[in-house]
Specification:
about 350 residues, alpha+beta, 13-stranded mixed β-sheet, about 35% helix
């Protein structure tokens, strides 16, 4: 086909979201609203590539990217920051031209990072650095009872215990509810010695995605106390478990089992076909097992870096993590606000 490589504004050119919706691999991470969330939070400049048919003006492919500037981790192009994956929606025979177009127009950016599912068996470009992850995807049966039976007995036991403990579900509807989630998120991150994403990231998700029906906020409570909560994205027939957090002091009541089962039930009732449990490092065996206990199947993800990966490496990670478990939460949140802009 005769085509142009063009830059598009997904907010003003309807062809962008129309293509995302019609393409089988189009996800919430390709959508203009997710692009808005990333831009509003981190101020990275979006560079959204479209493949336009010269004759028909129809869009035949898209490739959303952001220009990430950092003195510590290097100036680079990322598709797309802070996502589980963002599949390449460009024909593999054209993709090398797209890469050349971006590097020629933005020569100050030294390398490209792309995250995509391996299940399609596509090797788009030769790269010198590749890191493997997993995402776990649960296929929802038409019969919710069969879905329940597919869950590992340990998870089913936890669900029943949560019900005996009279844990309740409600859906968050306000920023106050979002703040309750964030309190738990900060506690969980500190437990693991990691800074949380800045609050503005979650607030922008709430402002841009919740209002359009692309996000919901399940909350598990007992006696009006929030024990667990999650931020779940949804688009087309997939629900994405983006973030979950729980109060470590009440884990014996099984709030996580209640949370995940309620997400599954809600997705089923909403007509979803799949639930994506999110990205996991291939070395994190315990988290992989936890997700598989819910009946979710692993799929390989690749983070590829072209032509190679540059930038800053954190030394003495163990020492930094230990420090993070002890510093005041206000300092931990400030750390997250600073560092995440460099580690897209």
């Amino acid at each position: 086909m005769p085509y142009h490589i063009i830059e598009m504004d997904p907010n003003t050119d309807r062809r962008w979201n129309n293509f995302v919706f019609s393409n089988t691999k189009g996800s919430i991470y390709h959508h203009s609203l997710w692009i808005d969330v990333i831009y509003k939070t981190y101020k990275y400049e979006p560079v959204c590539i479209g493949i336009e048919n010269i004759k028909t003006k129809k869009i035949e492919g898209i490739f959303p990217t952001f220009l990430v500037k950092s003195k510590f981790t290097g100036n680079r192009i990322v598709s797309v920051p802070f996502t589980t994956y963002c599949d390449i929606l460009v024909d593999k025979y054209i993709f090398s031209e797209v890469i050349n177009y971006i590097f020629e127009k933005y020569p100050k950016y030294k390398f490209l990072e792309v995250k995509y599912l391996n299940q399609y068996g596509i090797k788009y470009i030769q790269c010198n650095f590749q890191k493997l992850y997993y995402t776990h995807i649960l296929s929802l049966d038409y019969d919710i009872k069969k879905t329940f039976e597919s869950v590992h007995r340990s998870a089913r036991k936890g669900i029943r215990k949560a019900e005996k403990n009279n844990l309740k579900l409600r859906f968050g509807e306000s920023e106050n509810d979002l703040k309750e989630f964030y309190k738990l998120e900060v506690k969980v991150r500190q437990k693991h010695g990691l800074p949380p994403q800045p609050y503005s990231f979650f607030l922008n998700m709430f402002m841009y995605l919740y209002e359009k029906g692309f996000m919901y906020l399940p909350i598990i409570e007992k006696d009006n106390k929030v024990l667990a909560a999650g931020i779940i994205l949804k688009y087309k027939n997939i629900h994405y478990i983006e973030y979950t957090a729980s109060d470590n002091n009440y884990l014996s009541l099984r709030p996580n089992n209640k949370l995940f089962w309620e997400i599954i039930k809600y997705a089923h009732n909403d007509g979803a076909k799949f639930i994506d449990f999110g990205r996991t490092e291939n070395k994190n065996k315990s988290l992989i097992k936890y997700k598989e206990n819910w009946g979710a199947k692993p799929f390989e993800l690749s983070s590829i870096y072209y032509p190679e990966k540059y930038g800053f490496k954190i030394k003495d990670r163990k020492i930094l993590k230990k420090i993070n478990t002890m510093i005041p939460k206000v300092m931990l949140k400030l750390e997250g606000k600073i560092v995440y802009s460099h580690f897209a």
